[in-house]
């Protein structure tokens, strides 16, 4: 016998028994409510017939759910992060819609007193929270595995793969909710309206209100950037560059007779990031050690910390550097390596 042929274990709460008045719903332990909600999340029947949570249980399980969701969202951000209270609160509107729609869809027993209507709503809400946990946990941990670099899967890092994975878990969560709703009150036209409304709320949240509860914390990086030496133009800087230019050109080693010498020009004009400074130093080292170009490389680099040690990377300087290197080379036998590094452009 399959589940569809079994009487719903919670249906008695909604319908009562015959013409007898409905009695006060029984209570269950908080852990039992959590367990039954998790069962609903994997499409199993919640065993809560005739029961409803107390106000304290409902409040505790609600807080527990949102705390779990918040911690899970934190794992999706790699490195330092800050809590965005506005984004966290903005998602609550959909739960208010959920409660209002559930209040509308649940009162199928006309002769039931209002207290039982509240009990049905509380039971359905608490079970719905638990039912959302399995899909939420699976999706959140998968996202965290990529974000925290516990696993590397380049094939799953693109936008198409992200939305495909998101769709799978979205269908899972809606499926669990639909099955719970059917088992709770049976089939009705209101069920379909309720589910369509929940789908619409999710679509609106993704389209217009998709804000992350946790966001990358750039304050430390901003402090580091503020402490970095900056390239400041002044008369002293121009004079130092003129003197440095002559020093660097005079220090270039001449070509050697009978040897194919390698000369190099490294050009790194982007001054705001250290990565180009490091890259320029690495290329210079490779030319020196692997191609015997020591003393035959000019580095043109813009960086706040290299004003006294490196020539500026400007269009005029690259032209002058090529001419200076050409004057030292055997143009028929020697080789000039030009390495340019910067950000790309559209």
Brief synopsis:
The protein has 346 residues and is mainly α.
How is the topology of this model organized?
Blueprint lengths: L10 H5 L14 H12 L13 H20 L6 E3 L1 H6 L1 H14 L8 H34 L11 H27 L3 H20 L5 E3 L2 H9 L7 H16 L11 E7 L5 H17 L6 E5 L13 H14 L6 E6 L6
Parallel strand pairs: 3-4, 3-5
Antiparallel strand pairs: 1-2
Helix pairs in contact: 2-6, 3-6, 5-8, 6-7, 7-8
Q: What is the approximate shape? A: elongated
Low-confidence stretches at least 5 residues in length (pLDDT < 50)? 1-23
Give the N-to-C terminal Cα separation: 64 Å
Radius of gyration, CA atoms, in whole angstroms = 34 Å
Q: What is the number of strand segments? A: 5
Largest sheet: 3 strands, parallel
Order of helices and strands: HHHEHHHHHEHHEHEHE
Structural class: mainly alpha
Estimate the strand proportion.
5-15%
Outline the structure in words.
Helix 11 links the parallel strand 3 (262-268) and strand 4 (297-301). The longest helix has 34 residues, at 114-147. This protein is mainly α and 346 residues long. It has helices spanning 11-15, 30-41, 55-74, 85-90, 92-105, 114-147, 159-185, 189-208, 219-227, 235-250, 274-290, 315-328, and strands spanning 81-83, 214-216, 262-268, 297-301, 335-340. The strands form two sheets. It has a three-stranded parallel β-sheet, sandwiched between helices. A two-stranded antiparallel sheet has the order 1-2. It is 56% helix and 7% strand. Helix 6 (114-147) packs antiparallel against helix 7 (159-185). The protein is elongated. The model is unreliable at 1-23 (pLDDT under 50).
């Amino acid at each position: 016998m399959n589940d569809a042929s079994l009487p719903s274990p919670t249906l008695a709460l909604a319908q009562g028994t015959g013409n007898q008045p409905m009695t006060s719903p029984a209570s269950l332990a908080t852990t039992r409510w959590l367990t039954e909600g998790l069962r609903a999340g994997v499409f199993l029947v919640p065993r809560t017939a005739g029961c409803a949570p107390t106000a304290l249980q409902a409040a505790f399980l609600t807080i527990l759910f949102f705390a779990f969701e918040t911690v899970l969202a934190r794992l999706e951000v790699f490195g330092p992060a800050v809590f965005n209270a506005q984004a966290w609160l903005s998602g609550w509107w959909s739960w208010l819609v959920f409660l209002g729609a559930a209040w509308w869809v649940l009162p199928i027993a006309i002769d039931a007193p209002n207290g039982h209507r509240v009990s049905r709503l509380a039971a359905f809400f608490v079970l719905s929270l638990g039912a959302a946990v399995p899909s939420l946990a699976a999706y959140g941990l998968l996202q965290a595995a990529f974000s925290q670099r516990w696993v590397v899967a380049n094939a799953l890092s693109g936008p198409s793969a992200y939305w495909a994975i998101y769709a799978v878990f979205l269908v899972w969560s809606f499926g669990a909710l639909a099955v719970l709703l059917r088992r709770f009150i049976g089939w009705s036209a209101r069920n379909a309206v309720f589910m369509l409304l929940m789908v619409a709320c999710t679509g609106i949240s993704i389209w217009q209100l998709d804000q992350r509860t946790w966001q990358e914390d750039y304050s430390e990086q901003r402090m580091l950037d503020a402490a970095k030496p900056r390239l400041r133009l002044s008369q002293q800087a121009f004079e130092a560059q003129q003197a440095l230019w002559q020093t660097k050109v005079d220090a270039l080693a001449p070509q050697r007779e009978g040897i194919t010498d390698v000369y190099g020009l490294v050009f790194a004009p982007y001054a705001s990031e250290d990565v180009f400074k490091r890259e320029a130093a690495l290329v210079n080292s490779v030319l020196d050690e692997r191609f015997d170009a020591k003393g035959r490389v000019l580095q043109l680099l813009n960086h706040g910390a290299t004003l006294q040690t490196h020539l500026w990377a400007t269009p005029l300087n690259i032209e002058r550097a090529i001419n200076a290197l050409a004057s030292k080379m055997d143009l028929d036998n020697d080789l000039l390596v030009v390495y340019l590094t910067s950000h790309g452009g559209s």
